[in-house]
Amino acid sequence: MYSLHKKYSVTQKGFTLIEVLVYIAVLVIVAGALVSTFLSFDTVLIRNKTERVLAQEARMSLELISQSIRDATAVNTGLSTLDTSPGALALNAGATTTRFYVSNGTLMYAVNGVDVGPLTSNAITIQNITFNRQVGSSTELMRVALTLSAHSKAASSTRTFNTSAVLRGSYE
Fold first, then answer.
1. What is the pTM of this model?
2. pLDDT score at 11
3. What's the Rg (C-alpha) of the chain?
4. Which residues on adjacent β-strands are paired with residue 158?
């Protein structure tokens, strides 16, 4: 007997073109999300490093200035530029005169007229430094406002730091 109906069994091997295109589209979307996430993490890391360098430079500079103010017996008003920016501060401690000033956007440090060197690196720019002298009946206080800027390839930051210290000779 001859059967008019032959049963064909269809077995599929591989993927259809539509399935391949859908898989490729999903992979492109996932890869794009991963690259975007990586780039945003990289930017955040660079920004954090810039902030850390800025804070470290400010801390080191202000600590040296504060210590010099505490060790000083008097402010040399003839060599100082107070209440303006960029200011300069000259301090007398016995026979030693210490001076802080800005040159070409860098905070400089000099002892007895000889430059000791810069307090800030080339990565930092001094935007503003103001020295404010406040004289009381028995004390002399110096306030320092320091605004620094740091620029890197993907981030820039500007922050203001403040400190104050009392001159040793003013309360003895």
1. 0.74
2. 65
3. 33
4. 149
Phi-psi region of 112 (alpha: psi -120 to 50; beta: other; left: phi over 0): left
Task: Round to whole Å and give the CA distance between 120 and 76.
Answer: 23
Cα separation, 126 vs 120, whole angstroms: 8
3-state secondary structure of 2: coil
Beta strands in 46-155 (DSSP E): 74-75, 89-93, 96-103, 106-111, 114-118, 124-135, 140-151
For residue 162, what pLDDT is reported? 95
Q: What was the pLDDT predicted at 170?
A: 55
Cα separation of 95 and 59, whole Å? 27
Confidence at 171, pLDDT banded by 50, 70, 90: low
- Residues whose CB falls within 8 Å of the CB of residue 63, separated by 6 or more in sequence, listed in order: none
The helices-and-strands tally (H runs, E runs) of the chain is: 1, 8
pLDDT tens digits for 57-78? 999 999 999 999 999 988 999 9
**Dihedral angle, C-alpha 136, 137, 139, 142, nearest 10 °:** 20
In 3D space, the residue among 145, 130, 141 whose CA is nearest the CA of residue 165 turns out to be: 141
